[in-house]
Fold this sequence. Notes:
Elements: E1 2-7, E2 28-32, E3 38-41, H1 47-53, E4 60-64, H2 70-73, E5 88-94, H3 101-108, E6 124-130, E7 135-137, E8 140-146, E9 154-159, E10 164-168, H4 190-193, E11 198-202, H5 207-211, H6 221-231, E12 235-239, H7 247-261, E13 266-267, E14 275-276
Helix pairs in contact: 6-7
The protein binds zinc ion (2 copies).
One zinc ion (ZN) binds near residues 11, 27, 71, 170 and 240.
Amino acid sequence: MKVTLWGTRGSLASPGPETARYGGNTSCVEVRGDDGTVLVLDAGTGIRRLGLSLPRSLRRVNILLTHLHMDHIQGLGFFGILRNPQAEVHIWGPASTTLDLRSRLTRYLSPPLFPVHLRDLPSALFFHEVPRGEFDVGEFHITNALVCHPDPTVGYRIEAPDATITYLPDHEPALGAQKFPLSGDWTSGYKLAVESDLLIHDAQFTDDEYKTRVGWGHSSLAHAFEFAALAGVKSFVPFHHDPAHTDDVLDSLIKDSIDLAQPRFAVMPGMEGAVFEPG
Ligand SMILES: [Zn+2]
Ligand SMILES: [Zn+2]
């Protein structure tokens, strides 16, 4: 499989000269199978450029939404394949206790917040609610579960014949733990991430920032490194960078975290445009 980062920023798109290397677009990751299956993890603003890169002949795309916070759906209406009448777009994402997935998305993708109704888009749209048991899309076997982040939020474990990756862009596994990490059994997201070849994980805050933001649903870099170590992953991508963290800040935060944690896994900074072939 091939993994491409199209948007790595958390919370709010943050373009500008000081964020040009890590990128300003919000969460969007493409996972391309050797059989040609295309998975899109979240529909942040990065999805617009991903859409431009897809061949016009592609007939099916699968979007896996972790949750419906704006930074994960804001690009959806700008995903070009939705305007292709010959394309099928399958969207997985969580319902709430009172609204189904389509209704929740329609709250944003309708006037006055967006000029077009979902139902008026020419492509064929299919909605699938998560969490649900495991399911297969092309060569991928996908496991999903609720994780510690509000409104509700799922994480995805994606297994292909050549590699396994886990996507946990918004995740606060340290919430409620007196001392983090606890054992795997008591840690949110552990079962999804365990022994993955590649873990893409929330690394939004510094230690100091986290102290005043407990319960906001995100991890400090230190927590993210500890979670990756607990799960025994082969490689780790710090992701969902805080809008206030410039390229220079991120360079030093990640370097300091590596120096402190001395990880046994590889660390690949989550930079927009990065391509990985795990396994
Ligand atoms: Zn987010
Ligand atoms: Zn969120």
